[in-house]
Sequence to fold (472 residues):
Amino acid sequence: MQILLIFQEILSTPAILVGLMALLGLILQKRPATDVIKGTVKTIVGFLVLSAGASYLQTGSLTDFGVIFNYAFELKGVVPNNEAIVTTALVDIASITAWIMMFGMLANIVIARLSNLKYIFLTGHHTLYMACMIAIVLRVGGLDGWQLVLGGSLILGLAMAAFPALGQKTMTHITGSDDIALGHFSTVGYWFSAQVAKLTRGKKSREEVKSTEDINFPKWMTFMRDTTVAISITMIAVFVIVVAVAASKPGYAEALKDGGVLSGTALTGYSNWIVYALISGMNFAGGIYVILSGVRLILAEIVPAFQGIADKLVPNAKPAIDCPVVFPYAPNAVLIGFLTSFVGGILGMFILIAINPAFSNALPIILPGVVPHFFCGATAGVFANAEGGLKGTIVGGLLHGLLITFLPVLCMPVMGDLGFAATTFSDADFTVIGIALGNVAQLIKGTPLLIFCIVAFLAPIATRLVRGEKVK
Fold:
């Protein structure tokens, strides 16, 4: 059990996982020991830098903003959060989740080797979350023990290869190459935003539409061309508006302090809420700057190193990397995507409130979680910009916000007892897998459900064989 827990921790730590992949790739290329050490260490450090920036945002400005926003506008409901729902679920299914995760990664390599889905999913924490989601749904479908591990591993391995494939066409437009893929389980949302963005450009080609990165600022606003400055000023304005509403309520500082989030570090740490808003906006920009620095360091090392794996183990394989990998390609789209997705989440919340009486008030009210709307909304913005430019980014981001508001509503009923929790999965792919697999599990249970999992896993491999393509 201790060995299993060690494996689980290693495989759920993106920096170590990607470092091991870089190490294997460099060794397979028979690179000198000095190059192997340098490439491995720089890859791990790059991911740690990226993770530090993401954590800085998630535990600081993003979390504080969400708490203040909900307090300012007196919102109550379900806040989708992957970490929260997984923590709740792992109380009962920790060991099963770990086994599914470990064998799921092996299944990912098998399907990448034997089918045309040539993607190796490298985002460890999302692999853990998806393993947990699949375990929850298959248990509701009557699977347990080795059948649950086998069925869950095969579905996980299939998802780890299939979802990167869904977004790869737009990824090539974003990066200008076919070297890397996106390994983040919200690809359905990104693909959806890209398709919406395509519709906004009409008969124009991608090259003819105005990109978010081509925004022409007046001469006196040329400083806004600097990404860090533009993000700082925009987020300062957003924080000022929201904090001003919160500060207009009597006793706001004590109320937020009692929530345990802002105690001693945010509003209660400043004598004036305006100063807090200024610092928080720039903290947000600082987090983005750190993330972009980490991404650049990773890309400089992981792509050449991964070539060894692609050449020796899985020909033509592509590393599927976490969503911030696309942020440097369209920084303005990152900000626009986040803001429009968040607005879409607010709009979706009001729609749920309005229609709830027609459903006997049985629908959960999904509150806009700042963390998913930032990371997923920002990435959706980059995808939408690649297909539809500025206009596509605005429309695609807005509809993405609506999508990740309504998908959790449909997913919660298939999650058994966890469907009644105060939180749920937030990203699109988790909810899509939950809805699809959950409905299958309601129709067929036990061994027939396991057979379904096996057939689903073998389908891409069989498709390649039917086409007469040889496995190299």
Remarks:
- Confidence is low (pLDDT under 50) at residues 259-268.
- The two ends are 37 Å apart (CA to CA).
